[in-house]
Each structure stands twice: as structure tokens, then as C-alpha cells.
From TrEMBL:
This protein's UniProt keywords: Membrane, Oxidoreductase, Transmembrane, Transmembrane helix
Pfam families hit by this protein: FA_hydroxylase
Main location class: membrane
Source organism (scientific name): Aliisedimentitalea scapharcae
The keyword Isomerase is assigned to this record: no
Compartments, as annotated in UniProt: Membrane
Protein name: Sterol desaturase family protein
UniProt xrefs under InterPro entries: Fatty_acid_hydroxylase, Sterol_Desaturase_Related
Amino acid sequence: MSDTTSSSQQLTGPVSGAQVENMTREWNYHPELPLQDSSVFKWPPNPVFLAGWLTRNWLMLSERVMMAIVAVGLWYFFYPSLEVTQTFAWGWIAQIWIVNFAMICLFAGSLHWYFYMRKGQGKKLKFDHRPQGTSNKLWNFSDQVHDNMFWSLGSGVLQLTGFQAVSMWLMANGYTPTITFSENPVWFLGFLVIIPMWSAFHFYWAHRLLHQPFLYKRVHALHHRNVNIGPWSGFSMHPVEHFLYLSTLCIHWIVPSHPIHLYFHIVFQGPGAAMSHTGYEDLVIKDKRSLALGTFYHQLHHRYYECNYGNQEMPCDRWFGTFHDGSPEATAVTRARKKRMFG
């Protein structure tokens, strides 16, 4: 799941002063703690904060703007037209599968190559001290990256393609409402902004369900092998979890949308998960934070499990008492919750 914050903090030297200050035995780096509420859902509303949030996320080169650009490119050049998808056929479904397979490989593979093979950023802004896991029977193929690639490219791409094919077939045959930019430009742009919020709301509740002991032990534990996450971790899930996670796309079966909205949502759920699971807070270019990637918010979930089920887009964890702000006190509360749940 993609979880994005923006930053313009300047870094100086091979490791910033802020990173040195924020190194601990538990973490190679963490942001200033306790974590603050970065959601737009504040009361009373703060117009200045809302304007800054909109600017960072949609009026500058951000992760979301990049995803929207990719979605437009997919619509123009790579995915089949809706006219072609009016009747189910192996040809156009295979085309979607090939594009999705290549897209996951490109996003997760390039991020893994840059951060973990080339070590292009070293450990600057990396949350966990440790490298990716190898020579451990916990993983299929005894290797964390190979295990994650297997589940991401196997079950993940297959189910992503399945949800997309059904959605496109419904749109093509008029079984779900569609719009164009010329007909309703306000809703067209507004729905792009809403999709990550809907995704975050859906993710919180699907994720909490997966943390119920029965499903956790049989399904979600596969994803949580990744305590120290990397780009290939984000979309690595059990097939049952992939189904629940990707069911967020069903909103396009009900709410008026355009194929570009669907493709943006697909990029957000699939390749976007690689970006949010890099294990690094930001991409650093010439000692400047240039692109927001992972968040400590979700890193805490992979370390302590029974907390931060959602993300910073929707404050569901704050509303329902499952928020971990990075403090020792929050860790103690989370561990007590885990003990109650699993005995």
C-alpha cells in the first residue's frame, strides 16, 4: 500500500546531522518522534495545512503525480482499449498480464537495484540497520527477495490482472458508470485525489481483518515475514490477502470513473506498494530529499505488528486506538495488545 509524505529537508554531508541524531540501537534512522498527525482529516479544518498538503501531493512532482502520469501513459499506449474488452478473450487479458508483470518488475526491480544492489544511497534515511534476508529457511528459496518476487509476480500480478479485466469489461459494456474529463472535469480530478483516501480506508479494515489470529496465522503471516522490508516486500502476499487487498478496486464498479482512474488505482496498489516498502524514507539526490517513499508509520507496523494497520492518509489508527507514535510507551501498549490477541 502506498503511504506518502513529502519532505524538503536539506541533507548535508554523507550522513545528515538529523540522521546521526536519530540513530538508535533499534533503528538506523527514524524521523522526529513522536509521529505527528499528517492526515487532512483534522477538526477544525486548517486551510493552510490543506493547501500545503494539496501542493505537496498534487501540485509538485510527487509519488502520486508520477503515478497519474504513468496511468495516462498506460491508457494511451499499453492497455487494450475498452472497445476491445467488451468480450472476454485470452488475447487482451494476456496483454494486461504482460504489462502488469513488466510494471511490477520495473518499479520493484529498479528500486531494489538502486537501494540494495548498487547501494546508491547507502544507509542514508534507511529505517532498519539490517540487509535483506538470505540463507534462512523462513523464506521460500531461503532468500527474502526471491520469496517476495515469487508471491508478487505469481499471485499478485495474476489477481491484479483479474480485477482489472473484470473492471474493464464492466466499463466497456456500460454495466458500471463512466465519465470523461470534458463531461465532468471537477469530479475527474477530484476522484484522483479521493482514490488514495478510499484505498487507505479500505486497507485499514481489510488489514485489521487479516490480523485476527485465524487469518493471521494462515494468511497474513506470509507478508509479515518481512520485518525488514524492501521494495519486493510490498506486493508479496498470500493469495487470500491479495484478493482482500485488491478488492479496493471494486469501487470502480459503483462510482463513476474513467479508465485513467482505474489505472491510477492499479498503479497505486501494485507498483505503489514497492515504493512505500523501500525501507527508506526518501530518495536523496545531491543531498536533497527529492521524492517521498516509505514511511516510519508503516515500518513500525512491520516491526511491532499489532499497530498502525492503516496509513497516514486516513487517521483510522488514531480514531480506533491502534496508533503507534514511535515512543517506548506506544511499544509497550502494542506488545500488550499482541499478547491479548495471541496469548
